[in-house]
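sorry for the late reply, my laptop died twice this morning and i had to redo everyting from scratch. anyway the thing you sent over, i finally got around to it. pasting the sequence first so we're on the same page, its 275 residues, then the predicted structure underneath. double check i copied it right bc i was rushing
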Amino acid sequence: MATGTQPHSAHSGTGVHGATRAAISPRQLRTDRWWLAPAATAAGLLAFIVYSTWRAFANSDYHAAPYVSPFYSPCLAENCETMPGGPNWEIFGSWWTLSPALLILVFPLGFRLTCYYYRKAYYRGFWASPPACAVAEPHRKYTGETRFPLILQNAHRYFFYLALPVAGILTYDTVLAFRDEHYAWGHMGLGTLVFLVNIVLIWAYTLSCHSCRHIIGGRLKHFSRHPVRYRMWGLVSRLNEHHMLLAWTSLASVALADFYVYLLASGAFADPRFF
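ok and here's the structure:
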């Protein structure tokens, strides 16, 4: 056959080259630069991992009145900086000596790690499983998400429930951003705009989640009997169409919001005021 799909020999290999798979000897037949997409994905995710790891362990420059970094909100330890009117909840006592960011980042991180789009992104970008459509993966065996640790991806819906209050707290932080450096209300700076854009993208990404769509309308058999839920399901479905874009833009916006607070807190420049 022209495509080389004749049966494998008994000892031809395993995985994609196993006896039950099509006998295509080349690793792929694509002529385009298929490797650009997974390479760009891996580079983008790696850049965020490096940056967020540095900021999470830095334990400094995360508060510049009236702004608080989304990486450190809410601040749950006694070693947090004092943020009048801000998200200071000293749930963990003085025994916690590490960065308070480590107490809260686990929830949005777990939500994103188990997200359906991010699974596709880092499976292809880092694990080459598969590297791209119509490209053979290098693994001898495929077990999917049926074994540890990938079976933990099934916790995505529970991380969604945990991500909702985090988004609510970041909304509270955005409201507090309408104060000046002396905590007086009725002011707006460039940081306020940064926080506004970030929280809109955070909510859009969170609500476009596949779990959210399923929770709202996944079990309904008669939409006509549930018009409100049907409209909500339609709105979430429209957001879901842009889930990949929202995943990337919200990832960039939360890093930008943190970096902006870092620049202010480190004295790089003063927050420009609109009024």
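DSSP finds nine helices and four strands in the chain.
thats about all i looked at so far, will dig more tmrw
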